[in-house]
Amino acid sequence: MAGMLQPQIILLKEGTDTSQGKAQLVSNINACTAVADVVRTTLGPRGMDKLIHDDKGNVTISNDGATIMKLLDIVHPAAKILVDIAKSQDSEVGDGTTTVVLLAGEFLKEAKPFVEDGVHPQNLIRSYRTASYLAIERIKQLASSIEGKSLEEKKELLANCAATTLSSKLIGGEKVFFSKMVVDAVIAIGDEDRLNMIGIKKVAGGNMRDSFLVKGVAFKKTFSYAGFEQQPKKFLNPKILILNIELELKSEKENAEIRLSDPSQYQSIVDAEWNIIYDKLDKCVQSGAKVVLSRLAIGDLATQYFADRDIFCAGRVAEEDLQRVAAATGGTVQTSINDVIDEVLGTCECFEEKQVGNERFNIFSGCPSGRTATIVLRGGADQFIEEAERSLHDAIMIVRRALKNSTVVPGGGAIDMELSRYLRDKAREIAGRSQFFINSYAKALEVIPRQLCDNAGFDATDMLNKLRQKHSTGEGAPYGVDINTGGIADSYANFVWEPAVVKINAINAATEAACLVLSVDETVKNPKNLGIYSGFLVFCWSPLDTDYNA
Q1: Structure pTM?
Q2: Which residues of the chain have pLDDT under 50?
Q3: How far is Cα 490 from Cα 480, in angstroms, rounded to an integer?
């Protein structure tokens, strides 16, 4: 009897919530499926947008998967994995964020019946990884290279990739206009890896077609003092001096102490302050620069001084813009005005200040280094311009990836259907239960064409049957959903292309996320800490108490 009454062993703090076993795994799968359902309707050219407003009153309208996932503020620990893979897809390739979330959700949805039937999750994980490897190898076989083509041909191919990305965005109606602009911007920066070398400036007003590309640098006019309007606003082949110092008359700090033996010495101290600033300004003029930019303030004295000598100046220029000007013009940011030589000065073919809507822009064009570009975006509502900027970011990332990896695959669900067919055929060669699991993986891949049809209002069942029949012939690999006609069409012929790296990354990330969720069999939630006095508040004492033995 004594052996049966074992003392209870307490490992975890009181209030710790633990859940484990099959029920816990199914709960995690349901949470991930619910998250995938949120972004499901945003997929494709006919995808809907989501309007999200936070507790501060900020409103965001977007159909970008990564943006929506960031703003959803998901608290479920397993569902947060989908947020992470959407972010990684966005940072790695820029597009396919909705695709990766949908695929991960669908992989888990297909795994759920097996888990409920008692299949060990490790068997599923092993089969999913095998299927992922087979799918990626098949993508590499089907991909077409754009290497060895002329610059014009390459531009056209890249524009088609950008147009495919933009077709599902809010600015999809002007995808041809913007895709050419994006390709020109990416080619302008060449092999430069820093994405911030392509600046996007937003100006409310006008319509989308008023947007333009500057093959150089453009930034909004900075704060200016009196005398600024007297300065010239246009120069041809000017020398540009880029500074990181203040050109302002500085008085001594309030707590500075100067002891004088003679009152007449005070004037010499005041004169010294003026001499210091005039010495700096003289050296700027002697350098031969016609445009002076500084990250710090250029005061009213300096502004008037430069205006009298036909020199343009701008102070408090943003760090990012200053670095882009330096990269484009070949100049170097100076932290001292002493010994400025010609080698540190930048130059460009044309500098001008130009009115864009209600804003004035300083524009540097015809830069010798040419490793930067600026897109000036126009549009009506602020939310619209914000979404247009996010859309262009995705398109820029896609074009950069296509340039570096130089292989493309057909879009419109064509590659997904082909992978599904290929995996079903491969599954028949595998003995054992893995055949079922790889078949379920293949079925999950069909979610992309099915959702494209649902979002466009077509009959998904009928469309998938047509695609299955076409792909089974062996010559239907490039055939996908034709959103315009409601039928199936050759995606290559319709110029619906996407870089192979997008699909490879999406399948990799979605499979890893699904395997991670399947490998979790217990969740432990620690109780909230009650603060530094937790455990010490044993009783409350009052000065009126007299009976301390109670």
Answers
A1: 0.76
A2: 1, 530-550
A3: 6
